[in-house]
Design brief:
Number of domains: 1
Number of helices: 13
Largest sheet: 10 strands, mixed
Number of strands: 14
CATH architecture: Alpha-Beta Barrel
Helix content: 25-40%
Order of helices and strands: HHEHHEEHEEEHEEHHEHEEHHEEHEH
Strand content: 5-15%
Shape: globular
CATH superfamily: Glycosidases
CATH topology: TIM Barrel
């Protein structure tokens, strides 16, 4: 493209897109890989969850009250930085600094919408966005699962639904407007080829809420149109792949839509990742065995799917703090073992040079599931040091 034409096109862009365009060339020169950590935003007070977390500190209450269920389980996990309020910009500033200086350049925020209003949004709005000042990228994973008693360690019935994650078209239009205007237009929002990245956790719930596959497709097309109308070149949809992605669309009586790949193609997803290895392989026993079993499926993803797979690496797994009884968990997870699989994820990206260099990690702070990069009193900064050793300082490759 000629320089004169490039300048003319840029001059016509809205200010937030102009900023992103200027950033893109600089970012691409700095880092080939984007390392994105899922962020669980429940370490602050949200009045809607006070019936569970009566101490008004969010899920920290679950963490510091955890007890080991057997002689080898490591509980409670103790955060090196203490039980801090993530909705405080000063606290989030510390998180951002630790992330970007250790190779994590994107947070993927779990984002919730129940009863036509947000839940746990203060972490992002009051904490991250007020502290970030465009140092770090972020994007949203709409965690549209049902909110259940899984979060409530006192309740032995883990199937009790507090709020449904299903939404109809009217509510979805409200969500679309909020996401575009409040987040997509923020200069720090992560984009691929200029398109804001938006991840959907439960496609099945999405389809059921909208009333079926065709209605769900219409809703996503509306989302695309509204994103373009806001001045972006399009919407980049990322699916979270697990059993909640249907392996067919039988309701449409279609002979062509009979695999998960065909389903994702039908809805126009651009890529997919996993949230955690716990969605791929039964999370019990030794970390190495669990990891190798999970990573072995990456070849199938490459061979069987027509859209890119963004490799996921999971730090560990132990959800026992959320249960009054013992459940399966992963043992022997260490920073040294984590290193091996992060290197494999990097190699996967190198072996697929035509796809975005995006790697997802579970997680920045899933303390209640035993999967976190944040320093604890045992390993301190070692997990983050591993990321830094492999990827260097975190400067975004995305736009």
């Amino acid at each position: 493209m000629k320089i004169g034409l490039t300048v003319s096109v840029i001059c016509l862009l809205p200010s937030f897109l102009l900023f992103q365009s200027c950033q893109s060339g600089k970012d691409n020169a700095k880092q080939k890989y984007d390392v994105a950590a899922f962020y669980w935003p429940d370490f602050h007070y949200d009045p809607r969850l006070e019936f569970i977390f009566t101490d008004k500190v969010g899920e920290w209450q679950t963490i510091y009250n955890a007890k080991p269920k057997d002689s080898i389980e490591r509980q409670p996990r103790v955060p090196l930085w203490g039980y801090q309020d993530e909705s405080d910009p000063k606290v989030m500033d510390k998180n951002i600094h630790a992330a970007i200086t250790h190779g994590v350049n994107i947070f993927i925020f779990d984002w919730y919408w129940y009863d036509n209003k947000p839940l746990l949004e203060s972490c992002l709005d009051s904490g991250f966005l007020k502290a970030n000042h465009n140092r770090m990228r972020f994007y949203i994973m709409w965690a549209n699962h049902d909110a259940t008693s899984y979060w409530d360690p006192k309740n032995p019935d883990k199937n009790l639904i507090y709020w449904t994650g299903k939404v109809d078209s009217s509510v979805f239009h409200t969500i679309v407007a909020r996401v575009i205007n409040k987040y997509f237009k923020n200069p720090s929002y992560y984009k691929i080829d200029g398109k804001p990245v938006f991840s959907i956790y439960e496609l099945t719930n999405f389809i059921k809420g909208l009333g079926g596959p065709e209605e769900a497709m219409n809703a996503l097309n509306y989302f695309r149109r509204e994103t373009i109308r806001a001045g972006f070149p399009g919407l980049y949809l990322q699916a979270i792949l697990w059993s909640a992605v249907p392996d067919s669309l039988k309701l449409m009586n279609s002979d062509k839509i009979k695999t998960q790949d065909k389903v994702l193609q039908y809805f126009g997803f651009n890529s997919f990742t996993n949230y955690t290895w716990a969605h791929i392989r039964n999370p019990t026993g030794d970390y190495d065995k669990w990891a190798m079993s999970s990573i072995a499926i990456w070849k199938k993803y490459s061979d069987s799917f027509s859209i890119p797979y963004n490799p996921n690496v999971t730090v560990g797994w132990d959800p026992n703090p959320r249960f009054p009884f013992k459940v399966g968990y992963i043992t022997n997870s260490t920073p040294a073992k984590f290193r091996k699989y992060l290197i494999m994820a990097k190699q996967f990206i190198d072996d697929h040079p035509k796809q975005p260099g995006l790697i997802t990690i579970n997680a920045w702070n899933e303390w209640s599931e035993g999967s976190y990069l944040e320093p604890d009193t045992l390993y301190k900064m070692q997990y983050l040091d591993v990321v830094k050793d492999i990827f260097g300082n975190g400067e975004s490759n995305g736009q």
